[in-house]
Amino acid sequence: MRREESAPLLPCLQEVLAGEHAALYAYSVIGGRLGPGGSTATRAVAAYDVHRTRRDRLARRLHDLGERPVAAEPGYALPLPVQDATSAAALAQQVEDRCAVLYASLVATAPASTVERSLGSTSLVDAATRGLDWGAPATAFPGVS
Predict the structure, then answer these.
(1) Rounded distance, CA 50 to CA 7, Å?
(2) DSSP letters of 30-61?
(3) Are 18 and 70 contacting, i.e. CB atoms less than 8 angstroms apart?
(4) Is the model's pTM score more than 0.85?
(5) DSSP class of 65
(6) Using one digit for the tens of pLDDT, what is the confidence trace for 96-106?
(7) HSE-up of 21 (CA within 13 Å, CB side)?
(8) What is the DSSP letter of 134?
(9) Could you read off the pLDDT of 87-125 as tens digits, one per residue?
(10) Longest C-alpha distance within the chain, in Å?
(11) Which ranges of the chain does DSSP label H, i.e. alpha helix?
(12) What's the first-to-final CA gap in the chain, in angstroms?
C-alpha cells in the first residue's frame, strides 16, 4: 500500500498503537500486583507479551508508511485501582474490551485484503478471547458498542 493510499488509515493505526501502549502500562501494573508465579500471573505475562509484539508491529508498520509512531505516555490513569487478583482481572477485562474496540475500528477502516485488515481481525478475536479468559461476559459482537 502506498503512503497516499494509506492516508485515511494512518490516524486509526496511530490510535490502535496508543491503545497498545496503554495496554502495556495496565498489564505492567497488573503483573506488579500479582507477583511472580501462579496461573493468573502467567496469563498476565502472556498478555503483556502479546501486546508488546502488537505494539512493535504497529510501530514498524507506521514507520514503513513514512509516519512517526505515536509515543507512549509517561503514565496512564487506570479506570480502577488494582489491589488484588480480582481487581487485576477486572482491569484486564477492560483493557481487552478497549483493545477489541480499537481493532474493530481498524477492521472497519482498513481496505479489504490488506495487512492492516488481517491484523485487525486477528487481534479483535484475540482480545475478545483474552477478555473471556479474564472473566468478561461473552458478547454477540465483540468490539462493537
Answers:
(1) 27
(2) HHHHH-SSSHHHHHHHHHHHHHHHHHHHHHHH
(3) yes
(4) yes
(5) T
(6) 999 999 999 99
(7) 17
(8) T
(9) 999 999 999 999 999 999 999 999 988 999 999 999 999
(10) 48
(11) 3-6, 10-34, 39-64, 85-109, 115-133
(12) 30
**pLDDT number for residue 1:** 53
Buried-exposed string 84-100: b where 16+ CB fall within 10 A, e elsewhere:
ebeebbbbbbbbbbbbb
C-alpha 94/C-alpha 96 separation (Å) is 5
Q: How far apart are CA 30 and CA 86, in angstroms?
A: 10
CATH class of 3-133: mainly alpha
Q: How many residues does the chain have?
A: 145
Q: What is the pLDDT of residues 5-31, one digit of tens each?
A: 667 899 999 999 999 999 999 999 999
Specify the 3-state DSSP secondary structure of 141.
coil
Per-domain residue ranges of the chain? 3-133
C-alpha cell at 90: 477486572
